[in-house]
Amino acid sequence: MGLHILLAQVVQEVLQYMELVVLVVLLLLDMVLEVEEQLLGVLE
Question: What is the tally of structural domains in the chain?
């Protein structure tokens, strides 16, 4: 029984961590897209 509870806690923590990773990745993608747009503007 205790193992199931421990497993549930670990899963919850991993899911929270995944959410954080996804947010960071989205922010980085946003920055990269902005930089690419600026570079394209400079090249044109």
Answer: 1
Round to the nearest angstrom and report the end-to-end CA distance of the chain. 64
Check whether 1 has a pLDDT greater than 70.
Answer: no
DSSP state of 43: H
- Quote the domain boundaries for residue 34: 1-44
| Phi, psi at 19, each rounded to 5° | -60, -45
Would the pTM count as exceeding 0.70? Answer: no
CA distances from 35 to 7, 38, 40, 41, 43 (A): 42, 5, 9, 10, 12
